[in-house]
């Protein structure tokens, strides 16, 4: 699911991949629905390719968003109401207990929380695709 959701450096918000052109991607803003091109020189990353550092191994963003959804009962998270940097880090520790505190910055945590809110606002509430769930189930069974 998150493979088609993109973050583009220098552009606010998240975008949905609509189509591919010759030297560009056609993307649609999740918040406004406006379509724009994203060129080869833009730094574009799929949310499906992002992982959060932990003490042992990196955790895919989809799993972090799922545990965040569980903690927040499927509701948006008010980042400003959480408090200062220490409070935000403590909140994120409840979501992902073993995140690497040296390599995960508070700005990264705020970005994940904001992405979660933007995805909810766009009506995207399923973060882990069925294929990922099957893989996780198979890994546990081995």
Automatic annotation (TrEMBL):
Domain DUF5606: start-end pairs: 2-47
Record organism: Muribaculum gordoncarteri
InterPro entries linked to this entry: BVU_3817-like_C_sf (IPR049281), BVU_3817_N_sf (IPR049282), DUF5606 (IPR041218), DUF6852 (IPR049280)
Protein name per UniProt: Uncharacterized protein
Pfam annotation, one family: DUF5606
Domain (DUF6852) ranges: 50-119
Domain of life from the UniProt record: Bacteria
